[in-house]
Design goal:
By secondary structure, this protein is mostly helical. The chain contains two helices and no strands. Helix 1 runs antiparallel to helix 2. It is elongated and about 50 Å long.
């Protein structure tokens, strides 16, 4: 289960990179929203292991 969560969060984190990149290519109306979505996606990728895996005992 731990490996599955690591793989999923790695994919989510890597998916945020194109969002950052495309934010500079799309029209100005969508750029801030896409960049903010990239930031939130990266934050989600870091929050998932903290919530599901918790502390080691």
């Amino acid at each position: 289960m731990n490996i599955f969560i690591v793989v999923v969060t790695s994919i989510i984190f890597l998916a945020s990179f194109p969002m950052f990149t495309f934010a500079f290519v799309v029209p100005d109306m969508w750029a801030p929203w896409l960049f903010a979505a990239g930031v939130l996606t990266a934050c989600l990728a870091f929050a998932i292991p903290l919530l599901f895996l918790g502390r080691r005992r």
